Amino acid sequence: MKDEESENRLGSYLRARRELVSPAQAGLPSGGNRRVPGLRREEVALLAGISPDYYLRLERGRDKNPSPQVLESLARVLRLDDVERTYLLGLTATRPRAPRRKRPEHVPARVHQLLAHLSIPAFVEGRAFDVLASNPMAVALSPRLRPGQNRLRSFFLDPEEQAFHQDWAQASISFVAALRTTVGDDTDNPRFVELVGELALSSQRFRTLWARHDVRNLDGGTTTVHHPVVGELRLHRDKLPIDDVILVVYYPDKDSDSDEKLHLLAALSHTEPTGTAAGRPADTPPPKTT
Protein backbone atom coordinates (compact mmCIF):
# COMPACT_ATOMS: atom_id res chain seq x y z
CA MET A 1 0.00 0.00 0.00
CA LYS A 2 1.46 3.32 -1.07
CA ASP A 3 2.28 5.93 1.58
CA GLU A 4 0.19 8.57 -0.20
CA GLU A 5 -2.84 6.32 -0.13
CA SER A 6 -2.35 5.46 3.54
CA GLU A 7 -1.96 9.12 4.58
CA ASN A 8 -4.87 10.42 2.49
CA ARG A 9 -7.34 7.55 2.40
CA LEU A 10 -10.39 9.80 2.09
CA GLY A 11 -8.96 11.75 -0.84
CA SER A 12 -7.76 8.60 -2.60
CA TYR A 13 -11.18 7.01 -2.25
CA LEU A 14 -13.07 10.08 -3.50
CA ARG A 15 -10.79 10.41 -6.52
CA ALA A 16 -11.05 6.72 -7.42
CA ARG A 17 -14.84 6.67 -7.12
CA ARG A 18 -15.52 9.85 -9.11
CA GLU A 19 -13.44 8.42 -11.96
CA LEU A 20 -15.90 5.52 -12.14
CA VAL A 21 -19.05 7.66 -12.50
CA SER A 22 -19.84 8.75 -16.04
CA PRO A 23 -21.40 12.17 -16.76
CA ALA A 24 -24.47 10.38 -18.13
CA GLN A 25 -24.92 8.49 -14.85
CA ALA A 26 -24.78 11.80 -13.01
CA GLY A 27 -27.28 13.43 -15.37
CA LEU A 28 -24.68 15.66 -17.05
CA PRO A 29 -23.94 16.12 -20.76
CA SER A 30 -21.05 13.91 -21.84
CA GLY A 31 -19.80 16.05 -24.71
CA GLY A 32 -16.73 18.26 -24.79
CA ASN A 33 -13.07 17.53 -24.44
CA ARG A 34 -12.88 15.57 -21.18
CA ARG A 35 -9.30 14.94 -20.12
CA VAL A 36 -10.16 12.75 -17.13
CA PRO A 37 -12.31 9.62 -16.83
CA GLY A 38 -15.57 10.00 -14.97
CA LEU A 39 -16.60 13.23 -13.29
CA ARG A 40 -14.53 16.37 -12.87
CA ARG A 41 -13.93 17.68 -9.35
CA GLU A 42 -16.08 20.74 -9.94
CA GLU A 43 -18.94 18.55 -11.19
CA VAL A 44 -18.86 16.45 -8.03
CA ALA A 45 -18.83 19.61 -5.94
CA LEU A 46 -21.77 21.09 -7.84
CA LEU A 47 -23.87 17.95 -7.55
CA ALA A 48 -23.03 17.55 -3.85
CA GLY A 49 -23.86 21.17 -3.05
CA ILE A 50 -20.39 22.14 -1.81
CA SER A 51 -17.82 24.58 -3.14
CA PRO A 52 -15.21 23.35 -5.65
CA ASP A 53 -12.45 24.69 -3.38
CA TYR A 54 -13.74 22.68 -0.42
CA TYR A 55 -13.99 19.51 -2.49
CA LEU A 56 -10.43 20.06 -3.74
CA ARG A 57 -9.27 20.31 -0.11
CA LEU A 58 -10.97 17.00 0.64
CA GLU A 59 -9.31 15.18 -2.26
CA ARG A 60 -5.90 16.60 -1.46
CA GLY A 61 -6.14 15.69 2.20
CA ARG A 62 -6.15 19.25 3.53
CA ASP A 63 -9.50 18.71 5.25
CA LYS A 64 -9.94 15.28 6.80
CA ASN A 65 -12.97 15.98 8.92
CA PRO A 66 -15.99 16.68 6.69
CA SER A 67 -19.43 16.56 8.26
CA PRO A 68 -21.62 13.47 7.89
CA GLN A 69 -23.98 15.56 5.77
CA VAL A 70 -21.20 16.34 3.28
CA LEU A 71 -20.19 12.69 3.14
CA GLU A 72 -23.80 11.60 2.60
CA SER A 73 -24.08 14.05 -0.30
CA LEU A 74 -20.85 12.77 -1.82
CA ALA A 75 -22.04 9.18 -1.40
CA ARG A 76 -25.18 10.05 -3.35
CA VAL A 77 -23.27 11.75 -6.17
CA LEU A 78 -20.74 8.94 -6.40
CA ARG A 79 -23.55 6.36 -6.50
CA LEU A 80 -22.23 4.38 -3.53
CA ASP A 81 -24.11 1.38 -2.23
CA ASP A 82 -24.61 0.70 1.49
CA VAL A 83 -21.25 -1.04 1.98
CA GLU A 84 -19.38 1.68 0.08
CA ARG A 85 -21.22 4.45 1.91
CA THR A 86 -20.35 2.91 5.29
CA TYR A 87 -16.73 2.65 4.19
CA LEU A 88 -16.70 6.33 3.15
CA LEU A 89 -18.15 7.43 6.47
CA GLY A 90 -15.43 5.47 8.24
CA LEU A 91 -12.60 7.32 6.50
CA THR A 92 -12.91 10.56 8.48
CA ALA A 93 -10.32 11.62 11.01
CA THR A 94 -12.84 11.60 13.87
CA ARG A 95 -13.46 7.86 13.63
CA PRO A 96 -11.47 6.04 16.34
CA ARG A 97 -9.05 3.47 14.99
CA ALA A 98 -9.85 -0.11 15.82
CA PRO A 99 -7.40 -1.72 18.24
CA ARG A 100 -4.60 -3.58 16.51
CA ARG A 101 -4.87 -7.35 16.50
CA LYS A 102 -1.65 -8.38 18.27
CA ARG A 103 -2.12 -12.09 18.81
CA PRO A 104 -1.47 -14.45 15.89
CA GLU A 105 -4.43 -16.04 14.19
CA HIS A 106 -5.03 -19.62 15.22
CA VAL A 107 -7.67 -22.27 14.68
CA PRO A 108 -9.50 -23.44 17.83
CA ALA A 109 -9.19 -27.16 18.57
CA ARG A 110 -12.95 -27.62 18.22
CA VAL A 111 -12.80 -26.28 14.66
CA HIS A 112 -10.17 -28.88 13.74
CA GLN A 113 -12.61 -31.48 15.07
CA LEU A 114 -15.42 -29.97 13.02
CA LEU A 115 -13.32 -30.01 9.84
CA ALA A 116 -12.52 -33.67 10.42
CA HIS A 117 -16.22 -34.57 10.53
CA LEU A 118 -17.38 -32.55 7.51
CA SER A 119 -17.76 -34.53 4.29
CA ILE A 120 -17.97 -31.37 2.14
CA PRO A 121 -15.05 -29.10 1.21
CA ALA A 122 -14.31 -26.87 4.21
CA PHE A 123 -11.37 -24.76 5.30
CA VAL A 124 -10.45 -21.95 7.68
CA GLU A 125 -9.05 -18.62 6.50
CA GLY A 126 -7.58 -15.59 8.25
CA ARG A 127 -8.09 -11.87 7.63
CA ALA A 128 -5.57 -11.81 4.78
CA PHE A 129 -7.12 -14.93 3.19
CA ASP A 130 -4.36 -17.23 4.45
CA VAL A 131 -5.53 -20.85 4.59
CA LEU A 132 -5.04 -21.87 8.22
CA ALA A 133 -6.60 -25.34 8.11
CA SER A 134 -8.57 -27.49 5.70
CA ASN A 135 -10.17 -30.91 5.43
CA PRO A 136 -9.29 -33.57 2.83
CA MET A 137 -12.29 -32.70 0.64
CA ALA A 138 -11.16 -29.08 0.38
CA VAL A 139 -7.72 -30.21 -0.81
CA ALA A 140 -9.37 -32.65 -3.23
CA LEU A 141 -11.41 -29.78 -4.60
CA SER A 142 -8.31 -27.59 -4.98
CA PRO A 143 -4.71 -28.19 -3.85
CA ARG A 144 -4.49 -24.40 -3.37
CA LEU A 145 -6.63 -24.91 -0.26
CA ARG A 146 -3.84 -26.60 1.69
CA PRO A 147 -2.77 -24.90 4.94
CA GLY A 148 -0.04 -22.36 4.27
CA GLN A 149 -1.48 -21.22 0.95
CA ASN A 150 -2.89 -17.73 0.45
CA ARG A 151 -6.12 -17.59 -1.53
CA LEU A 152 -5.49 -14.16 -3.02
CA ARG A 153 -1.98 -15.03 -4.08
CA SER A 154 -3.20 -18.25 -5.73
CA PHE A 155 -6.11 -16.44 -7.34
CA PHE A 156 -3.98 -13.82 -9.09
CA LEU A 157 -0.67 -15.60 -9.64
CA ASP A 158 -1.53 -19.27 -10.26
CA PRO A 159 -2.77 -20.09 -13.82
CA GLU A 160 -4.39 -23.30 -12.57
CA GLU A 161 -6.47 -21.33 -10.06
CA GLN A 162 -7.53 -18.90 -12.77
CA ALA A 163 -8.66 -21.77 -15.00
CA PHE A 164 -10.48 -23.30 -12.01
CA HIS A 165 -13.00 -20.43 -11.81
CA GLN A 166 -15.63 -20.19 -14.53
CA ASP A 167 -15.88 -16.39 -14.25
CA TRP A 168 -12.45 -15.48 -12.95
CA ALA A 169 -12.61 -11.86 -14.17
CA GLN A 170 -15.83 -11.08 -12.30
CA ALA A 171 -14.73 -12.99 -9.21
CA SER A 172 -11.49 -10.99 -9.13
CA ILE A 173 -13.48 -7.76 -8.69
CA SER A 174 -15.27 -9.12 -5.64
CA PHE A 175 -12.10 -10.61 -4.18
CA VAL A 176 -10.08 -7.38 -4.31
CA ALA A 177 -13.03 -5.37 -3.00
CA ALA A 178 -13.31 -7.80 -0.08
CA LEU A 179 -9.61 -7.36 0.66
CA ARG A 180 -10.03 -3.55 0.65
CA THR A 181 -12.89 -3.91 3.15
CA THR A 182 -10.89 -6.30 5.33
CA VAL A 183 -7.86 -4.00 5.40
CA GLY A 184 -9.99 -1.05 6.55
CA ASP A 185 -7.80 1.37 8.49
CA ASP A 186 -5.25 -1.32 9.34
CA THR A 187 -3.08 -0.11 6.47
CA ASP A 188 0.22 -0.55 8.30
CA ASN A 189 -0.42 -4.21 9.17
CA PRO A 190 2.75 -6.01 7.96
CA ARG A 191 0.79 -8.95 6.51
CA PHE A 192 -1.43 -6.69 4.43
CA VAL A 193 1.50 -4.53 3.32
CA GLU A 194 3.43 -7.62 2.24
CA LEU A 195 0.49 -9.19 0.39
CA VAL A 196 -0.71 -6.06 -1.40
CA GLY A 197 2.84 -5.15 -2.34
CA GLU A 198 3.56 -8.57 -3.84
CA LEU A 199 0.31 -8.69 -5.81
CA ALA A 200 0.66 -5.11 -7.04
CA LEU A 201 4.13 -5.92 -8.40
CA SER A 202 3.14 -9.24 -9.96
CA SER A 203 -0.40 -8.79 -11.31
CA GLN A 204 -1.64 -6.05 -13.63
CA ARG A 205 -5.22 -7.15 -12.94
CA PHE A 206 -4.72 -6.71 -9.21
CA ARG A 207 -3.12 -3.25 -9.68
CA THR A 208 -6.05 -2.10 -11.79
CA LEU A 209 -8.69 -3.33 -9.35
CA TRP A 210 -6.85 -2.09 -6.25
CA ALA A 211 -6.73 1.41 -7.75
CA ARG A 212 -10.54 1.42 -8.08
CA HIS A 213 -10.98 1.37 -4.27
CA ASP A 214 -14.00 -0.95 -4.53
CA VAL A 215 -15.25 -2.26 -1.19
CA ARG A 216 -17.51 -5.24 -0.75
CA ASN A 217 -18.32 -7.93 1.77
CA LEU A 218 -17.34 -11.35 0.46
CA ASP A 219 -20.03 -13.43 2.08
CA GLY A 220 -22.08 -16.34 0.85
CA GLY A 221 -22.90 -17.00 -2.76
CA THR A 222 -22.85 -19.54 -5.54
CA THR A 223 -19.91 -20.25 -7.81
CA THR A 224 -19.10 -22.55 -10.71
CA VAL A 225 -15.67 -24.13 -10.91
CA HIS A 226 -13.94 -26.46 -13.37
CA HIS A 227 -12.32 -29.39 -11.59
CA PRO A 228 -9.62 -31.11 -13.68
CA VAL A 229 -10.96 -34.59 -12.80
CA VAL A 230 -14.74 -34.45 -12.29
CA GLY A 231 -15.50 -31.42 -14.46
CA GLU A 232 -17.87 -28.55 -13.78
CA LEU A 233 -19.20 -28.08 -10.24
CA ARG A 234 -21.86 -25.62 -9.13
CA LEU A 235 -21.32 -24.98 -5.43
CA HIS A 236 -22.79 -22.75 -2.76
CA ARG A 237 -20.36 -20.97 -0.42
CA ASP A 238 -20.95 -19.90 3.16
CA LYS A 239 -18.48 -18.06 5.43
CA LEU A 240 -19.01 -18.49 9.15
CA PRO A 241 -17.04 -16.37 11.68
CA ILE A 242 -15.57 -18.38 14.54
CA ASP A 243 -13.55 -16.37 17.06
CA ASP A 244 -10.85 -14.57 15.03
CA VAL A 245 -11.07 -16.76 11.92
CA ILE A 246 -13.58 -17.68 9.21
CA LEU A 247 -14.88 -21.17 8.43
CA VAL A 248 -15.63 -21.50 4.70
CA VAL A 249 -17.75 -24.37 3.37
CA TYR A 250 -18.66 -25.35 -0.18
CA TYR A 251 -21.65 -27.57 -0.88
CA PRO A 252 -23.88 -28.50 -3.85
CA ASP A 253 -27.62 -28.80 -4.12
CA LYS A 254 -28.63 -32.20 -2.77
CA ASP A 255 -28.98 -34.93 -5.42
CA SER A 256 -27.75 -32.59 -8.13
CA ASP A 257 -25.18 -33.42 -10.79
CA SER A 258 -22.58 -31.52 -8.74
CA ASP A 259 -23.55 -33.56 -5.66
CA GLU A 260 -22.84 -36.78 -7.56
CA LYS A 261 -19.52 -35.40 -8.79
CA LEU A 262 -18.46 -34.47 -5.25
CA HIS A 263 -19.19 -38.02 -4.12
CA LEU A 264 -17.09 -39.28 -7.02
CA LEU A 265 -14.30 -36.89 -6.07
CA ALA A 266 -14.42 -38.16 -2.49
CA ALA A 267 -14.14 -41.77 -3.70
CA LEU A 268 -11.29 -40.97 -6.07
CA SER A 269 -9.35 -39.10 -3.40
CA HIS A 270 -10.10 -41.72 -0.72
CA THR A 271 -11.44 -39.12 1.72
CA GLU A 272 -13.69 -40.14 4.58
CA PRO A 273 -16.13 -37.94 6.56
CA THR A 274 -14.22 -38.79 9.75
CA GLY A 275 -10.72 -38.35 8.31
CA THR A 276 -8.06 -36.14 9.85
CA ALA A 277 -8.29 -32.46 8.95
CA ALA A 278 -5.29 -31.16 7.05
CA GLY A 279 -4.49 -28.44 9.56
CA ARG A 280 -1.82 -27.44 12.02
CA PRO A 281 -2.15 -27.61 15.80
CA ALA A 282 -4.64 -25.04 17.03
CA ASP A 283 -2.04 -22.79 18.64
CA THR A 284 0.32 -22.62 15.63
CA PRO A 285 0.36 -19.31 13.70
CA PRO A 286 -0.03 -19.38 9.89
CA PRO A 287 3.19 -19.79 7.95
CA LYS A 288 4.49 -16.84 5.98
CA THR A 289 3.75 -17.23 2.29
CA THR A 290 6.41 -16.55 -0.28
Molecular structure report:
Strand 1 (122-125) and strand 2 (131-134) form a beta hairpin. The protein has 290 residues and is of the alpha+beta class. A five-stranded antiparallel sheet has the order 2-1-5-4-3. The protein has helices at 3-7, 9-18, 41-48, 52-59, 68-77, 82-89, 109-117, 136-141, 151-157, 159-164, 168-183, 190-202, 204-212, 257-269; strands at 122-125, 131-134, 221-227, 231-242, 245-251. The chain is built from 14 helices and five strands. Mean pLDDT is 86; it is low at 272-277 and 279-290.
Walk me through the topology.
Layout: H1 3-7, H2 9-18, H3 41-48, H4 52-59, H5 68-77, H6 82-89, H7 109-117, E1 122-125, E2 131-134, H8 136-141, H9 151-157, H10 159-164, H11 168-183, H12 190-202, H13 204-212, E3 221-227, E4 231-242, E5 245-251, H14 257-269
Antiparallel strand pairs: 1-2, 1-5, 3-4, 4-5
Helix pairs in contact: 3-4, 3-5, 5-6, 11-13, 12-13
Please give a quick description of this structure.
With about 290 residues, the protein is of the alpha+beta class. The chain is built from 14 helices and five strands. Helices cover about 45% and strands about 10% of the residues.
Structural class: alpha+beta
Mean pLDDT: 86
Please state roughly what percent of the residues sit in beta strands, choosing from under 5%, 5-15%, 15-25%, 25-35%, 35-45% or over 45%: 5-15%
The H/E string reads: HHHHHHHEEHHHHHHEEEH
List keywords for this structure.
alpha+beta, 44% helix, 12% strand
